[in-house]
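Lab notebook: predicted structure, single chain.

Context: the supervisor wants predicted structures on file for every construct in the current expression panel, including those that have not yet been purified. This is the next one on the list. No modifications to the sequence; it matches the entry in the shared construct table.
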Amino acid sequence: MKYDAIVIGSSTGGLVSALTLQKAHKKVLLLEANSFPGEYTTSFVRGRFEFDVSFNELLCFGTESSHGELYELFERLNLLKHMNFCKGPQNYVIYLSDTDETFELPFSVSDFILKMEEYVPDSKESMHDFFELAREVLDGLSYIVHSKEEFDETFLKQNYPNFMKVSAYSVDEVMKHLHMPKKAQDILCAYWVSFGSPTSTLSFVSFASAFYSFIKYGIWSSSSKSSSIASSLIDEFEQSGGEVQYLSRVVEIMMSENQVIGVRCDDGRKYQASYIVSNVSPTTFYGTLLPASFRDERMNRLCNSRTLGAQGLSIYLGLNCSVEDLGLNHYRYFLFHSFDRHKEYLHMKEMYHTTCQAVVLNLANPHCSPKGTTIIQISSFYPEEIFSKYVNEENYFEVKSIIADTFISALEQATHVSIRDAIEEIEVATPVTFARYGGHPNGSIFGYMAKGYDNFLPRVMNAKNENIFSNVRFCGIFGSYIASCNDSYFDGEEVALEILKEMKGDLTHEY
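Prediction complete. Output recorded below exactly as produced.
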């Protein structure tokens, strides 16, 4: 049997791509190596706790009366009727261990600007300019997302001129020209640790659009676990006639006369399709899955021209006390030594660093764990391949234990709360875990690092030139939209719409 499209992997990007194609009445097969969908948008159980693999958060979401692009995408995919969502607390905290300083920042643009003025007098005007620029950046991205045909570069220049001006520059390069007091820049830019890249290379477009959404719409999440998002996407996909095969790991790309014609799975089954949508990285697709006789210099150049992003690290804590008993009052903590972002990034190249963000999930969703308990997730990363340089089979478990102890101590210092005495369950996910679980090289959960002219807009504009095989597309964290769970949703839809255009399918959103 031949399919219109085969989607390899059920990450958020793959799920959205598969569903979008299926709703346009195409015959779609979704192949997932695990026994459940979602990749990192799923959960696991330890004792009486169910932990989300990644932060269960939605940016650019909101409500029916005031919402962003992700809310509209969920509406297009008919997901809102299946799920309930909750909004998180109205502030977050930055903690600097070197000076024992704490900065508490609110959500809502106006409140954020006023609070910043308290911390940094005379920052109000430059902060207002930043948010105006960030809003235009987000509007420019929205135009690209809504472009059913290829977006018009001339239209972008005319209507979003500042978006075009900053599109190829890093956070540091743009911030230099905003005439913002240094301390205000430092507080604002603390959000960089969510991206796995230093601000010297991090795309300003990616940072500004995400931070604007973060402040304007606040933090939203599924009222249940993040796996409910993947489950809802799968349910809608299957109800629309889509086919899913679990425990089906693709091990070879099938070729005929220099064209991709299908895939072979580890159980020997073979499937043919007109198009292949891959959540697998180009590094793995071309370097491992594609038969060696079909590899060429173009593939080597494409993969070697990019650097794999940071390696993921997460610590999951199930505590036997409520947040009230513990005295935890804030949902999200950003932990640094200081505001020196360059030194902080270099510090993260040490095995036992403490730069991270921590989330107290019960403050957003009181029902995420059994009554009288609390879930905390600490997340960080290692730049480049630091973890694999120092860890081997002999010291792996010892290193995991020291890493967890180090981060827990840092969080206790920031919160002035004794956390370790309340630990009932603990799990540590290292780069090795993420490499095995998600199949990403070296556990690089952020995809390819965005830097210089290899940032968001250049990637989007050059995406077609990177299609070595005309019927193969990459989506998710290795797609054009750079790396974040929220961007993966949009990237998945964009890839599907591009395929539908080539198929002369239905390109409207009126499914």
